[in-house]
UniProtKB/TrEMBL annotation:
Entry-linked Pfam families: AzlC (PF03591)
Topology of this chain in the membrane: Multi-pass membrane protein
Name under which the protein is recorded: AzlC family ABC transporter permease
Keyword Transmembrane helix: yes
Keywords tagged on the record: Cell membrane, Membrane, Transmembrane, Transmembrane helix, Transport
Keyword Membrane attached: yes
Coiled-coil residue spans: none
Family per record: Belongs to the AzlC family.
Transmembrane residue ranges: 12-35, 134-151, 158-178, 190-207, 212-228
Length: 231
């Protein structure tokens, strides 16, 4: 375990702590939906997607067909391809195996931590990113299993508002990232990108699945960011 790997794990501690709350909330809700502890463990190990796993539980409860579930989860997590493409630019000299591990364990939160690190360091090591990813992965998996164990003893978790936990975490991450970006990017440029994303999402969400609207809005925000950089 290198010093950079340890430093990456330290940088991911806030994410890990956040995952404890959100992961336990997911585990509780999953248990209430009749999903076993072992199934929760496999979901976290193999799918490892907070929003995707919350959506998966809802789809299983409503009895959606497997093809519909697979397509929905794929579309929800499609944004990870965009994040992974950008993440790859930080590590141009790593092996294919390391790239696959970094991309496979990438989440919104670990990507956000990477962006913050990139603002402070000219070069980000692959070991640092692996530490960032691994601690977050383990925290999420452990938390969801703990939540499932607790959920077996809670009759109605929705009355506790636990289904809002993931949204609350995203709001906190967004606020922190906005403050960080405002230090190096003009606020007008950030506002222009956010307005583009919001406008495209709300328009497309009126007649397209929300997962498609999210992906389209993300792409529109990327295009707007590039255009603003060039002008």
């Amino acid at each position: 375990m290198t010093s950079e790997f340890k430093r990456g794990m330290q940088s991911a501690l806030p994410t890990g702590l956040g995952y404890l709350g959100v992961g336990m909330a997911f585990g509780v809700i999953a248990a209430a939906a009749g999903i076993t502890v072992w199934q929760v463990l496999l979901m976290s190990l193999l799918i490892y997607a907070g929003a995707g796993q919350f959506a998966l539980v809802g789809l299983l409860v409503t009895g959606e067909p497997l093809s519909s579930i697979a397509l929905t989860i794929f579309l929800i997590n499609l944004r990870n391809f965009l994040m992974a493409l950008h993440t790859a630019t930080f590590f141009p000299n790593v092996s294919t195996g390391q790239s696959l591990v970094i991309g496979g364990l990438l989440t919104d939160e670990t990507y956000g931590v990477l962006l913050a690190e990139g603002l402070q360091q000219q070069v980000v090591s692959a070991d640092w990113m692996l530490g960032n990813n691994v601690l977050s992965y383990l925290s999420w998996t452990i938390a969801t299993v703990m939540g499932a164990l607790v959920g077996e003893r809670i009759p109605s978790p929705y009355t506790l508002g636990l289904d809002f936990a993931l949204i609350a975490m995203f709001i906190g991450i967004f606020a922190a990232q906005f403050r960080g970006l405002a230090l190096s990017v003009p606020v007008k440029k950030i506002a222009g990108i956010l307005l583009t994303v919001a406008s495209v999402f709300f328009v497309l969400a009126c007649f397209l699945p929300k997962s498609v609207a999210v992906l389209s809005a993300t792409l529109a925000g990327c295009v707007m960011g590039v255009w603003l950089d060039e002008n």
